[in-house]
Amino acid sequence: MPPTAPVPSADKPSISLSPAVVMAKGSFSQTLSQTLTLTNQTARDFAFEMVAEDVVVKDGKRIFVAGGETPNSIAASAVFTQKTVLVKPFSSASVDVRLTLPAETNIRAVVAMFRGTDKLPTSSGAVGMTASLGALITFNLTDNIKLQPEPVRVIPVSETANMKIAQWISNSGTEPALPEGAAVVLNGNGGLVGKTVFDPQRLLPGERLEFAAEYPGDLPPGKYRALCSYQFEGKTLTSEAAFEVPKK
Amino acid sequence: MLATACCVAAHGQTPGSPERAVFARSGVETPLSVAYQKTVQLPVAGATAAYSLDPNIADATAASGLVEIVGKAPGSTNIIIVTSAGAQTLAVTVPVPPPILPPGFEPPERQGTGESGTYEFRYNSDPNQITNSIELKRTQGQSFTRMQVINANLFSSSGSTSAIGFPFLAYQISRPDRDITFIDKNVLNSPLTLDGFLVRGFHMRQGPWEFHGGFTSIATFQGLFLSTDREYTAGVTRVFRIDDVNSLEANAYYFQNPDSQRTFASNGAVGSVVYRRKLSDKGKFLAELGVSHGFGFATRATFDDKRNHLLGNFHVQSRSFASLAVNNQHGTFADLNASRKVTERLYASLDLNQSNYNLLTLSQNTFTSSGLLNFKLNQHFSVNGGGGYATFQSKIPVGPAITTVNLPAGVDYSTRHFGTGFEYQRTINIEGGGSGNDYAVNARASAGRFQFSGFYRHDVQVPTLAAIFSQIPGLQDALDRAGIVASTPEQLASLLQNTAILQLLGFTNAFVVNLAPSRNDLNAAVSWVSHSQNRRKVDLSYFDSDTELLQGHFILKTATLSYSQRLKSTNDIVGSAAMVQTTNNGVTSTHPLFSISIQHRFYAVPTLLLPGRHGMIQGHIFRDDDSAGLYNAQMPAMSGVEVRLDEDRVTRTDSSGYYAFHHVPFGVHRVEAKLESDEPFFYTTDSPATVDMNATADFGINFAKGQIFGFLLNDAGTGINGITVELKGEKFTRRVQTGLNGKFAFTGLAPGSYSIATLPDSFPPGYALQDLAAQNVVVDPGKPASAQFTVKALRSIAGRVLVYDKATLQTVPLAGVTVRLKELSLEAKTGATGAYIFRNLAAGTYTVAIEGDGKEITRTVVVPAGPASIRDVDLNAGTKEGATR
After folding, report:
1. B630-666: b or e for each residue (b if 16 or more CB lie within 10 Å)?
2. What is the value of ipTM here, to two decimals?
3. Is B104 exposed, middle or buried (0-12, 13-18, 19+ CB in 10 A)?
4. Could you give the dihedral angle defined by the CA atoms of residues B487, B489, B491 and B497, in that order, rounded to the nearest 10 degrees?
5. What are the residues facing B79 on neighbouring strands?
6. What average pLDDT does this structure show over B327-346?
7. Contacts of A30 in chain B (CB under 8 A)
8. pLDDT value of residue B530
9. Smallest CA–CA separation between A227 and chain B, in Å?
């Protein structure tokens, strides 16, 4: 797809990719087509090559693996409408990527990347760098969505920090999940005295992340309970922990 | 402040087994539906707290066992309700609120189906008639098929009308390049040929050609169908498109009128040329020059933008110019209507009209002109003023000449719920009568669901028609209510133009225009509209008109009550009852009028009446080894592959990879290739694909190739860059070079066994190459295989042990000294030159040490990961007397 006509902009120089995240639902052996648009709001040309890499979780962390180096790779099936793309200043360019899900695969995420091919000028003597941007594409292919919560932790308020309610959650299923939820504080009578929300975080299969939220208020001495609740893919998860604020 | 906190294990659910949202309390359906911006209260025993997991969709609170949930935005979320027994989850859905649509708009789910229709049953008491109208339409893209039937059953028929008739029958098949209409069509061809006449026959457009043939026996007037004798016509048009905005048309038509109309209209052929021009999307222009038994010329122009409006017509046609008899436009006619928003406050308008009828039994000249300025003083007040000039003269039949000048002025006040205005007009009759003052007041108001309006108007020297209407029952009433109330020159001109057709058709006798000394009109109306979905509406109006004639008075009083409502989402009913009383020179006549109409809307049409279009979907399935995503005939075909259409129909590709589905209905379809293969593959085109009828859907398949990737590392685990790696297969050899991290990859490999080796020549110095061996790697279909090579890097530390000779005052080598490499517990004796060396070292940090002058002398050496021959690691053993042993 050819770059669109230049559009002058008063914004700060930037390069952006849209969409940054695609959450797809489907079934094995299907194809997914997605248009990726890169917008160049700088005064110079940028050249990119299009690559796809599988996203796998190893030791709880995400790593990118070149297409085909993992059995039943999804990235190996990536077909881009353009292999390379040049984005002129203050313009945008769109590239379609088509991915085929193998008949069976454990992979649930792919990154489709605009990989920069030219060095950007830096201060003299510094190491040159390139700009690469990628869109994360996740796939939900089965109903096997399981989240494994760990105990709720309440970190007390200190001279330098608010009270923090935190919980590690790991994805023990085979599908990605995007839990969103809230943490509440209940008094001894079960009444709600405080509420805060967790920032949504995407959990790929095998991934483990901490969900934490701060409670900025002061609690009078007494016994309390902290409840952490999440919803994801039509399911809910609630955990709780008791804690006490002692008298001074 | 918070001293300690106690963390306990989570409970309330089984870790790792989250459940779908359920709510234990019986009697509550889940998910609970909470309307947008509405609140639902839910008694839950023991509820102490409640919170939402997405407060943007719904929020929740709880107190004293009562949970309150508020719908805030369309969507779904979960509410956690805390009780003494634990936390319960309640799924909540906030549905999208139903759209509030203005009357006449349909909800979105009914749009886009492509099928629509209406049916109307109507009964009128005067004339005593039942009318059935049905219109069905099936739209498929740019094509459509339409059927229209209007059936009229006249219970009190006269000799000139049939009791049961079909005033309109049409079946139209329209495609982008062709349009065929059977039976009736309202033909708008050109001003000098067919200009809005209902022609019963056959109509066709094919590319640039257009044909109309048949007869007209119906004239329409004020919504009434009036029967006439048959007037035949046939003609053809050829369009010559010059460019996107300009075109020419050539017309050839023939007209044949019944003998009874020969005195009004000539038979014969007409040839004309039409030039059309589009003025962007704001207007258009037309000019037509025609030849028959004389000449004719017509032009039309329209233009509209944000500030200006223009509509102009000019038409001249000789008396013997051939035409249908219902076309009474023989003579010269011109009219212009223009307005302009001069400023944000000033609005100007101008109207001109010239009509010169030139018929055997009718010769009349009319000219009217008026100009008006409206100035907005502020948000509520505006004033207007202007002038008008009108003349009317009838030679056949002979009538009085009338010339008037009007000078109107007025003021208006308007707010949202109230408005009123006062208009004054000085009327000066130069010919035909005296002068006088006209005035009118009007007012409107609204309160809640009620709207009120009314006016009182006093006119002097009012033009009135004296005519006798005969054949059609109800025509007199229709004209009384619709046409006879002419109080301005413009209305008079329009009235004359419209009613001339009636005289030509024989429905009226010849008429003359008189001036009534004065007329007083009074109107009052009230309406009520419900805000409910059934849209009830009640209108009540009263009209009283008292015209002072030269002899006596003509008084018209009507009171009308009408009611309408939507019965269901697809049915409407409208009913009205009116009482009409006329008093003419003391003779009073009163009669009631009733009408009722039931309307039904269709969103599906029967296929039997309007069959839909069908076509085919076809394509190829091919091997796309290069992932090009586009089919060409040279690509290897894939036969026997299953293809599914809409999960309903199944076929397989033939030996050329071709498949086809026939008799596919119009619309969007889902086509999917279903390849069964043990070998991994991927599609290089969309599968499933979404295509329209008559589209091609090709599917490219690329079988996933295997690949071998690996690393070439030194014994320290560091990648070796730039080394050539060679892969040997049964029929080919390929070479690649390692990257910065020592990585290499061979892609696109067929299943099989391969030999991989590094080429010694490509190594830089410093590696032990004697043990380079090839590796055999097996590639399974579509799966990666890996290989790793490790090459020993050669690393050594060398130096000398020296001592200062006091005798010669020089530093001299010291032989036979033991040098130790402490980390590896290695020892070496210095030679005659004092030199030592440690070889075959691994990367790391080492300490080289000797004993000298009774103490240990050391040096630290860092051996890198790559090949390294570190020299000149010299050690000073002190003076010769105290030399090391």
Report:
1. ebeeebebbeebebbbbeeeeeebeeebebebeebeb
2. 0.85
3. exposed
4. 140
5. B52, B90
6. 87
7. 687-688
8. 87
9. 9
Residue of A nearest to B87 (CA): A238
Cβ separation B78–A31 shorter than 8 A: no
| Distances from the Cα of B281 to the Cα of A152, B288, B338, angstroms | 67, 21, 18
Beta strand B268-279 with B246-256 is antiparallel
Give the closest of A71, A155, A239 to B10, CB-based.
A239
Strand-pair partners of A201: none
Whether cis (ω within 30° of 0) applies to the bond prior to B764 is: no
Question: Which chain B residue lies closest to A171 (C-alpha atoms)?
Answer: B16
Amino acid at B518: S
Spatial strand order in the sheet of B818-821: B826-829, B818-821, B844-852, B855-863
Label the pairing between strands B178-188 and B875-879: unpaired
Query: Hey, is the C-beta of B778 within 8 angstroms of any chain A C-beta?
Result: no
User: Would you call A191 and B52 a contact, using CB atoms and an 8 Å cutoff?
Assistant: no
CB count within 10 Å of CB B578 equals: 20
Determine whether the interchain pair A102/B704 forms a contact, defined as Cβ–Cβ distance below 8 Å: yes
pTM to 2 decimals? Answer: 0.59
Backbone torsions φ then ψ of B686, nearest 5 degrees: -65, 135
Distance CA B633, CA B656 (A): 9
pLDDT by position in tens, chain A (length 248): 444 444 444 557 888 999 999 999 888 888 888 999 999 988 888 889 999 999 999 887 889 999 888 888 999 889 898 889 999 889 999 999 999 888 889 999 999 999 988 766 555 555 666 778 999 999 999 989 899 999 999 998 888 888 899 999 999 999 999 999 999 999 988 888 888 889 889 999 999 999 999 888 888 899 999 999 999 988 899 999 999 988 86
What radius of gyration, in Å, describes the C-alpha atoms of chain A? 23
Q: Which residues contact A127 (CB under 8 A, 6 or more apart)?
A: none
A-B contacts (CB, under 8 Å): 187
Q: Which residues of A touch B17 (CB under 8 A)?
A: 146
Residue type, A32: L
Q: Which CA distances in Å does B253 have to A165, B211, B239, B324, B359?
A: 89, 10, 15, 11, 22
Tokens encoding B708: 């071998």
Distance CA B481, CA A117 (A): 81
| Cα gap B433→B248, rounded to integer Å | 50
Nearest to B80 among A70, A81, A238 (CB): A238
- Is B45 an interface residue toward A (CB < 8 Å)? no
What residues of B are in contact with residue A234 (Cβ under 8 Å)?
20-21
- CB < 8 Å & 24+ apart, contacts of B541-546: B544/B520, B545/B485, B545/B519, B545/B520, B545/B521, B546/B519, B546/B520, B546/B521
């549905």: which residue's tokens? Answer: B95
Largest CA distance in chain A: 69
Residues on chain A touching B84 (C-beta within 8 angstroms): 190
Query: Which among B4, B78, B627 is the nearest to A236, CB-wise?
Result: B78
Closest residue of A to B9, CA-based?
A151
Measure the CA–CA gap between B391 and B404, rounded to whole angstroms.
6
DSSP B613: P
Tokens matching residue B122: 């109507």
Q: What are phi and psi of B109, to 5 degrees?
A: -65, -15
Q: Kindly report the number of other CB atoms within 10 A of residue B138's CB atom.
A: 24
How far off is chain B from A212, nearest CA to CA, in Å? 15
Cis check for the bond before B688: say yes or no (omega within 30 of 0): yes
Tokens in use for B257? 């009128």
**What angle is formed at CA B603 by the lines to CA B602 and CA B606, rounded to 5 degrees?**
80
Query: H or E stretch including B301?
Result: strand B294-304
